[in-house]
Each structure stands twice: as C-alpha cells, then as structure tokens.
Amino acid sequence: MIKRTLAPLFAIVTLLGGLASTRLIRRFVVEGESMLQAYAPGDRLVVERFSLLRRPPRVGEVVVVRQAHGGGRLDLKRVFAGPGASVEVLYAPMTLGSDEWFVVGDNLDHSSDSRQHGPVSTADIVGRVWFRY
Q: Got the DSSP string for 31-97?
C-alpha cells in the first residue's frame, strides 16, 4: 500500500527533475522592488519555459526577461503589450514589431523596463512565472 501512494509522487519528482535538468524549469529569487506589490525581494519563484514552446506570452503575464541593456541581466516584468501593438512612451507612439514585447514592472517608479530601454524580443523571454514558494 505504501508503494502505491509513493509511486505517483516519485514520478512527479522525477519528471520535475528531468525538466529542470533540461532548463525548462528554473528557480529564481526576486531582487529589487520593480514588481512590488505582486512580488517582493526575497520571494522564490519557479519559472517554466515549456509553455512558451506552445504559445507566446499573454498580456498581463509575469515573465523573466534577459535585458540587453543590463549585460544579459535577468529581470522580472509583466507583459504590457505584444507583437503588432501600439504603445505610447513619453507621448510618442511606438508600434511593436512582429517579434517584440513591451514589458514593465508593476512598481513603475522603481522599474527599469521597456519604457526606458525599448521592447524585448521573444528570444529574450526566459520563461513564465509558474508559482511562488
């Protein structure tokens, strides 16, 4: 009876371990205040990449992006607009290209994001936040 109850748990742990080893699931710790109130410094996140293989991010989702301006630094941001959308930055309209995403931090006063550095490409989206623990 014990073997039966542990078998599904073992299978899940093995599957998650396999996904983690292929970089489809990664763990991150939030640094900085750009995503306050949703995510605070020190929050631990599990970020998954496998759903990005099936569909692009949606507006409103929280993603980890590689910021070109920060030497490849990873940042936690919310998707504000996707490919083809028009956004207004400092009263100047901008239309995103077919592979561009406009991402911002929830705490706008303390976030360095697409408003200052421009959109990020799909290739710079590392993964989607799956859950916090």
A: -SSTTTTTS-TT-EEEEE-GGGGTS---TT-EEEEEEGGGTSEEEEEEEEE-TT-EEEETTEEEE--
> Residue 5 corresponds to which amino acid?
T
Q: Model-level pTM?
A: 0.80
Residue 73: name the closest of 28, 106, 24 by CA: 28
pLDDT (tens digit, 9 = 90+) per residue, 34-86?
Answer: 999 999 999 999 999 999 989 999 999 999 999 876 677 899 999 999 999 99
- For residues 125 and 10, which has the higher predicted lDDT (pLDDT)? 125
Q: Provide φ and ψ at 122, rounded to 5°.
A: -60, -40
Give the list of residues 6+ apart from residue 62 with CB closer than 8 angstroms, or none.
35, 38, 39, 76, 77, 78, 79, 128, 129
Whether 59 and 79 have beta carbons less than 8 Å apart is answered as yes
81, 59 in Cβ contact below 8 A?
Answer: yes
Sheet holding 120-121, edge to edge: 25-29, 44-48, 125-132, 62-67, 73-81, 100-104, 120-121
